[in-house]
Automatic annotation (TrEMBL):
Residues 1-18 form the signal peptide. Gene3D superfamilies: Crystallins. This is Uncharacterized protein. It comes from the Eukaryota. Keywords: Signal.
Length: 119
């Protein structure tokens, strides 16, 4: 019985160790409130890949900051198509609710691109 348990534990450990870890090119910094406050998170992305915001941030983003050397498109839908806030660059937008856009608490996905000349 103990031998079977030991083999089961070893098999589980090997399966976990073999699970690939997602590597990201960079991260988009987003916060639920203005001026980089509230719930904040670095959301990893790969260049030109559509990323859906984590559930707790969907339709709840007020501050958004791309990393230097990237420009990002932020979308209302979950597939990086359609209505978007385009070409957001570093340092980003600290308050989407300031009246200059209508995207406050309305974003669900994004796609970032490395700028020409960036490393």
């Amino acid at each position: 019985m103990q031998f079977t348990l030991a083999i089961s534990v070893l098999a589980t450990a090997l399966a976990v160790a073999a699970t690939p870890v997602k590597r990201w090119d960079n991260a988009l910094y987003v916060c639920s409130d203005a001026n980089w406050s509230g719930t904040c998170e670095n959301v990893g992305f790969n260049n030109e890949e559509c990323i859906v915001f984590p559930g707790e941030l969907q339709n709840d983003i007020t501050s958004v900051g791309p990393p230097q050397g990237y420009y990002c498109y932020l979308y209302r839908n979950y597939s990086c198509t359609g209505d978007n806030l385009s070409s957001v660059v570093y340092p980003g937008i600290s308050d989407l609710g300031d009246g200059n856009t209508d995207y406050n608490d309305g974003l669900n996905s994004f796609k970032c691109f490395g700028s020409v000349g960036s490393e």
